[in-house]
């Protein structure tokens, strides 16, 4: 989590990306989902562009060089 950069709704995607790049095993776990009526999150074109931009930034933010430096610090 210390390597995470994003402070947006895409933080979980970034964490999963980092975990995979660092060699962690990732498992899908089923959850019981209840849709909450009256949710305050509204998707607008601006929000969609921001999310897409963050998604595209993840790979650039965490190049192999950056991850290699992190692995060396942990060793």
Description:
The protein is 52% helix and 0% strand. With 75 residues, it is mainly alpha-helical. The longest helix is centred in the last third of the chain and has 17 residues, at 45-61. The two termini are 17 Å apart. The mean pLDDT is 85.
Instruction: State the separation between the terminal residues, measured CA to CA.
Output: 17 Å
Task: Give the oligomeric state.
Answer: single chain
Helix fraction, binned, reads 40-55%
Backbone CA Rg: 15 Å
Main beta sheet, described? none
Count of beta strands: 0
Residue-averaged pLDDT? 85
Query: What class, by secondary structure content?
Result: mainly alpha
Poorly predicted runs? none
Overall geometric form: flat
Number of helices: 3
Tell me what portion of residues adopts beta-strand conformation: under 5%
Order of helical and strand elements = HHH
Features of this protein?
mainly alpha, 75 residues
Helix-strand blueprint:
Layout: H1 11-21, H2 45-61, H3 64-74
Question: How is this structure best summarized?
Answer:
The protein has 75 residues and is mainly α.
């Amino acid at each position: 989590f210390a390597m995470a950069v994003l402070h947006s709704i895409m933080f979980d995607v970034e964490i999963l990306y980092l975990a995979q790049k660092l060699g962690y095993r990732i498992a899908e776990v089923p959850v019981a989902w209840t849709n909450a009526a009256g949710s305050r999150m509204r998707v607008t074109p601006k929000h969609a562009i921001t999310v897409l931009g963050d998604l595209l930034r993840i790979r650039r933010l965490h190049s192999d060089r950056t991850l290699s430096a992190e692995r060396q610090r942990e060793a």
